[in-house]
């Protein structure tokens, strides 16, 4: 209240009489998020606690965030007029996905909109080739890569690296779509030929021989403050994240510290504002390589909603509004997140009944559902299991038991089947 009074130059107590335009404080800052998916939905959840309302630009009224926020603009993220409507009067405009055309964002900036992250930073999360070249110039550790002009580039690249080849679309990929881990050279050539025939720009990477995948999640504010969460392990199946273990078990302290520092350095060098996820590979020889960047809340940070002092959605809002950042310390020795992915065949039992049963069997499971229809493999929610005190990320038994429970909870929510055969009746 006092802050609001200070803003419009009136005495603090005057503002108590202000009539709110909506159930929320009419002079709280408005943040617009482009895209109405689950990330916007959960950012809105954090906005509520800060006394704000998140405005979303959603493709339709049934989008996960459009269902929950009263401030919705329906339109396409590729439509400049829709973007302008969403940007009207906002303190900052930010993203649930990275697919907004750069020229539109530059127009908005020219018209005075605070775009966070700014377009010249966001490009590194939109275009994997631009990102690889920039990281190379910054001396960040990355896999060997190559641009592609013709199918013949595949053989030249494979010869240079002597490694299996990964073909990636330069733009627009997500959840493994647009990534081909080629079986052999013929497969790689075939994939490249197919994409090029469709006019899709592709690039090549060496297939990294890895122990596992990690993620360094950080946030940066325009003021220049940075904050890093503990480095986590991510588990992918068919290119989709299925599980996150926070912190990454058994990761040597100096590697973890190095990865956090790398995340903060990249956020600063690239001028990121908001949350930055740096997807990493831990190679078989223990090296860290950067896979890709996301400049928004990220699946690898969902654990922080229940497992950290400040969750990534609140932190993203703080960062784009240039507030001081929150404490990122973990609340438990280990937190495990299990993604709820739509089953091959949606169960007969309603989701509500599944939630009901889960509450009964696992009172400590924290459920987050996105309001999405169940389709095979689709991310429809996640479950966080926050470990009991006294354990350690370096204790395989403690971590294993927590992972088993998170997987059991997530599988139950998607399949209405207990992985351990338990029968509630
Ligand atoms: N160079 C690589 N070597 C080995 N595996 C890779 C490589 N690039 C991607 N992958 C695998 O494919 C997944 C998806 O690739 P990524 O570039 O992150 O695409 P997306 O944009 O779909 O997340 C990664 O999480 C990893 O499991
Ligand atoms: Mg990825």
TrEMBL record:
Entry-linked Pfam families: ATP-grasp (PF02222), PurK_C (PF17769), RS_preATP-grasp-like (PF22660)
Protein name, UniProt field: N5-carboxyaminoimidazole ribonucleotide synthase
Assembly with partners or alone: Homodimer.
Keywords: ATP-binding, Ligase, Nucleotide-binding, Purine biosynthesis
Residues annotated to bind ATP: 128, 168, 205-208, 213, 291-292
E.C. number(s) listed in UniProt: 6.3.4.18
Stretch list, region Disordered: 1-22
Entry GO terms, CC: cytosol
Reactions the enzyme catalyzes: 5-amino-1-(5-phospho-beta-D-ribosyl)imidazole + hydrogencarbonate + ATP = 5-carboxyamino-1-(5-phospho-D-ribosyl)imidazole + ADP + phosphate + 2 H(+)
Keyword presence, RNA-binding: no
Positions of transmembrane segments: none
UniProt source species: Mycolicibacterium frederiksbergense
Segments forming domain ATP-grasp: 132-321
GO MF annotation: an example: metal ion binding
Source domain of life: Bacteria
Pathway entry: Purine metabolism; IMP biosynthesis via de novo pathway; 5-amino-1-(5-phospho-D-ribosyl)imidazole-4-carboxylate from 5-amino-1-(5-phospho-D-ribosyl)imidazole (N5-CAIR route): step 1/2
PANTHER family found in the cross-reference section: PHOSPHORIBOSYLAMINOIMIDAZOLE CARBOXYLASE (PTHR11609:SF5), PURINE BIOSYNTHESIS PROTEIN 6/7, PUR6/7 (PTHR11609)
Task of the protein: Catalyzes the ATP-dependent conversion of 5-aminoimidazole ribonucleotide (AIR) and HCO(3)(-) to N5-carboxyaminoimidazole ribonucleotide (N5-CAIR). Catalyzes the ATP-dependent conversion of 5-aminoimidazole ribonucleotide (AIR) and HCO(3)- to N5-carboxyaminoimidazole ribonucleotide (N5-CAIR).
Gene label: purK
One GO term (biological process): 'de novo' IMP biosynthetic process
Family: Belongs to the PurK/PurT family.
